[in-house]
Amino acid sequence: MVTKTFEISTGGRDQMLDITDKVRRVVADSGEKDGMAFVYVPHTTAGVTINENADPDVVHDVLAALDRAVPWRQDFYEHSEGNSAAHVKSSMVGCSAAVPIVDGKLTLGTWQAIFFCEFDGPRTRKFIVSVGR
Ligand code: ZN
């Protein structure tokens, strides 16, 4: 198992950053031909998801829909830090993603990319990539 931790700086409150190339690099460096790439985000107000990177409108629409579904201010929120929406979004998208590796390559579909999801930025964040079998 090869594990690498990355730092990432986010630039807005809600943002999806394409980290596919970084994951691909860990896969290539690992030499693993058949296994799994596992991406983990160790934060409670961020996450990771796989979606389309070809049309940037998709990222816009995903973030806008999450924001519509989970407004930043709600009178029923009790969490004193004031970022309950970010916690909810984090749980909705999840904090991990796994992609099978076949013949040394991620088996992502043509339009798929791996996105780090920021929901309470801007901040300096981390994500962890493990590659193994
Ligand atoms: Zn909080």
List the helices and strands and how they pair.
Layout: E1 2-9, E2 15-18, H1 20-30, E3 35-40, E4 46-52, H2 56-69, H3 84-93, E5 96-102, E6 105-106, E7 112-118, E8 124-132
Antiparallel strand pairs: 1-8, 2-7, 3-5, 3-8, 4-7, 5-6
Zinc ion binds at residues 79, 81, 83, 87.
Walk me through what this model shows.
The chain is of the alpha+beta class. It is 26% helix and 38% strand. It contains three helices and eight strands. The strands form two sheets. The chain has a five-stranded antiparallel sheet, covered by helices on one side. Strands 2-7-4 form a three-stranded antiparallel sheet, with helices on both faces. The longest helix is centred in the middle third of the chain and has 14 residues, at 56-69. The mean pLDDT is 98. The structure holds zinc ion.
What's the CATH topology name? Jelly Rolls
Provide the CATH superfamily. YjbQ-like
Bound ligand species: zinc ion
Multimeric state of these chains? single chain
Instruction: Quickly give the CATH architecture.
Output: Sandwich
Cα Rg: 16 Å
Task: Give me the strand/helix succession.
Answer: EEHEEHHEEEE
Keywords:
3-stranded antiparallel β-sheet, 3 helices, binds zinc ion, 5-stranded antiparallel β-sheet, 8 strands, Jelly Rolls
Task: Please provide a brief summary of the model.
The protein has helices spanning 20-30, 56-69, 84-93, and strands at 2-9, 15-18, 35-40, 46-52, 96-102, 105-106, 112-118, 124-132. The chain has 133 residues and is α+β, with helices and mostly antiparallel strands.
